[in-house]
Amino acid sequence: MSTLNHLAIIIDGNRRWAKNKGRSSFNGHKKGMDNVRKIGESCRKKGIKVLTLYVFSTENWKRSKKEVKYLMNLFSQVFSKKNVQELNGKGIRLKVIGQINRLSKPLQKKIKEAEELTKSNKKGILNLAVSYGGKADIVQAIKNIVKKRVPEEKINESLIEKNLWTFDLPHPDLIIRTGGEQRLSNFLLWQSAYSELYFTKKLWPDFTEKELDKALKDYSQRQRKFGK
Questions:
Q1: How confident is the model over 97-128, as pLDDT tens digits?
Q2: Total domains, the chain
Q3: Which positions ≥6 away from 48 have C-beta within 8 Å?
Q4: Does residue 46 sit within a domain?
Q5: Which residues are catalytic?
Q6: Sign of the C-alpha dihedral, residues 150, 152, 155, 160?
Q7: Sheet with 50-57, side-by-side order of all strands
Q8: Which domain holds residue 208?
């Protein structure tokens, strides 16, 4: 039976969910963000130590300014004092990975304050990938190494990992993607080398604890050999 410490989820299907119900894409995103709270709580109760959610990719900046603005407002709500204090009370550490410098200054400030407040919490980690791209992650790691003028012979996988945005996190054991697509879409490309993958046709707002249990059961029956 495979143990699971780090679960990562590619959130997909908010807009299609809204379209299917004759609603605006904004309504789909709102429902999706509500589900983040529900699934996050389910994972906490199940003892999953690290939960990484892919909520906004580097490619998502190409969407309409109106939609991007709405999504940023949703993210800002995630980092409200009430939400952060609630997570802090449960012993959850908040972390954000991605091109944080592309976010608004007020949102950057909220993120920094949330990370600072919760940095010592040990009961779990909620890691949000915002303005994140796997390729961008690797590029910025290489740039960091170049800045440090590390000799070529000392550059290895361990050094690169220490310079990734996920430097203090274990690699994901399982990556779930909702919405029916079967690809990683530039998510944790380096870190997912030996992750188990699970794809479901359920759109994210319809992804319930029952669906989560199906994925976890499927994962528990797999044997991870890591090339051995």
A1: 999 999 999 999 999 999 999 999 999 999 99
A2: 1
A3: 4, 5, 6, 7, 124
A4: yes
A5: 12, 60
A6: positive
A7: 92-97, 124-132, 50-57, 6-10, 174-177, 196-199
A8: 6-133+173-220
